[in-house]
Each structure stands twice: as structure tokens, then as C-alpha cells.
Amino acid sequence: MWAAGGRLSPMLAAGVVSSCVRVVRCNRRGKLPAGSVTLIPRRAHRVTQHGNTGKLERNGEAKKSVICLEGNIACGKTTCLNYFSETSNIEVLTEPISQWRNVRGHNPLGLMYQDPERWGITLQTYVQLTMLDRHLSPISAPVRMMERSIFSAKYIFVENLFRSGKMPEVDFAVLSEWFDWITTNIYLPVDLIVYLQATPEKCHERLKQRSREEEKVIPLEYLESIHQLYEDWLIKRTSSPLPAPVLVIPADHDLNEMLHQYEENRDKILHACYL
Ligand code: TTP
Ligand code: MG
């Protein structure tokens, strides 16, 4: 499932220089600390090579399952996460969107929607960092459910900006280099992808209802492109590699029916984690 890495220096492989590996941590309010990085205590999160893949991973943690919740903008990911957050033994991680709207007083999300050619790289670089931070943060329950992943940020949003001619080739190349380095050298396990499959029309309707300021400029065509990329990735499987098996849940239904579906799929979701 994962490409073998094996690019570590002998010293890193032996864990000798593990204290040099820094991981940016969120503070309690979920914000990246301004101007600083925190060194994860060596004993708690020593970085070693993963036995099968040769990638960097934290050790000292029992095997935990990671589920990534995927789907178009406003398809209902947060609602689904909120539902499962009431289940014991599941840790829920919502998307770091507040960080994308406010990094040291700047709003890269808003800037990107105003001028994607200029600010797409800025937003997507920061999305990639914050998603990596999410993937690497210590897991506090046997099962983690997280909103999106570093994979969809790249395979869907970066890809969409590039394909639609809104991201210069050089920006795409630099982001791709970063992404490839991260996924080659760092072990980011995902056990299951839950795909909330909604029509672009339904997402557009929900988007207008919730009325997030930055998103008021999003036309239906944008959601159609994102939808197509998701379908190619998770259903047709013709585009980017899949990091995990996929469970598809139709997501056009009203809230009550969606909650019912989540309940019906509860075992599949939890069981699939132990595959
Ligand atoms: P979503 O990840 O779709 O989150 P959401 O809360 O809107 O979805 P849901 O209602 O299903 O919970 O997107 C948040 C915003 O961030 C949206 O405007 C799309 C944008 N975005 C990017 O521009 N680039 C990215 O890489 C990602 C992940 C999101
Ligand atoms: Mg959300």
C-alpha cells in the first residue's frame, strides 16, 4: 500500500539523531504557536524507521486506527464527526479551518478565493503543514476519525487549482516536491477512508445555507470539479494512489436520514479499522 521509503541516513535509521526531528505542535486552541516549534520529548515520540516501509514513525504508541472522512465542500463531514464524537473510544479531529482563516492575522483561505493564481500556493502550503500536524499528533483513543487528510488536500485541491489553470506550474512543482518528500519519508497510516458522496448541487445548497464569508464566491462549477476529482480518486480509482480501503456513504439525504445511515454503518466503520 505504501511505497518503500528507505531514504534515511544510517544515523537517522538507527535513531541516533532522532532528537533533530521536529514536529510542529498545536497549542490548546488548535493554533500553531507563533514563531516557534516545539521539540516533541524524545522519550514520548522518538522517531524510528517503520519496519515495513522504512519511513519515519513515532514509536511507543500501541496500534491505533485512523479513519479519514472525505467528501466535497459542505457535504456534511463536520456533522458526521460531531455524531461520532459522542461515541466513547473515538477521538474526533475536525479540520484546522480556523487556522486557514487566521495565521498570525492573515486569512489565506479568503485570499485564495479572491485571487487563486496569487494565493493558491500560500493556502495550500499552509493546509499541507496543518494536515501533517494533524496526522502526526498523538492519538488519545483506540480510534481516530479525522476530517480530510493530507492526501485529499493534494490530490483534490492542489490538483484542481493546477488543472483549472489557476496555479502556475512552478507552484505545483514545489508543492508536489514537498508532498512527495513527506509521504516518502514519514509514515502516515490511514486504515479507512469514509467517502461522503454528495452531488455538487446538494453541496452548493448546503454551502449557501451555512454562508461562510470566504466561500460566497464559490460557483457550482467549482464543486463539480472537486466532485469529479473525488470520483476519479475514490470510485474510479484512476488518478492518485489510495492510502486505504474506501467506504462510500451516499450523503444527499436530510440530516435525520444521514444520522440513521451513520448508525447503520457504525460497525462497518469501526470493524474495518481492524482489517
Ligand atoms: P472542507 O474541507 O470541505 O470543510 P467543510 O467544513 O467546508 O466541509 P463539511 O461541511 O463537509 O464539514 O473545506 C473547508 C474550506 O477549505 C473550503 O472552502 C475548501 C477549502 N480548502 C481548500 O481550499 N484547500 C484544501 O486543501 C482544503 C482541504 C480545503
Ligand atoms: Mg467541516
From TrEMBL:
Main location class: mitochondrion
What PROSITE patterns would the database entry show? PROKAR_LIPOPROTEIN
Annotated GO molecular function terms are: ATP binding; deoxycytidine kinase activity; thymidine kinase activity
An example of a Gene Ontology BP annotation on this entry?
carbohydrate derivative metabolic process
Substrates-to-products reaction catalysed: thymidine + ATP = dTMP + ADP + H(+); 2'-deoxyuridine + ATP = dUMP + ADP + H(+); 2'-deoxycytidine + ATP = dCMP + ADP + H(+)
Q: Where in the cell is it found?
A: Mitochondrion
Its GO CC terms are: mitochondrion
| E.C. number(s) listed in UniProt | 2.7.1.21, 2.7.1.74
Task: Give the similarity note.
Answer: Belongs to the DCK/DGK family.
> PANTHER family, from UniProt?
DEOXYNUCLEOSIDE KINASE, THYMIDINE KINASE 2, MITOCHONDRIAL
Q: What is this protein called?
A: Thymidine kinase 2, mitochondrial
Q: What species was this sequence derived from?
A: Labrus bergylta
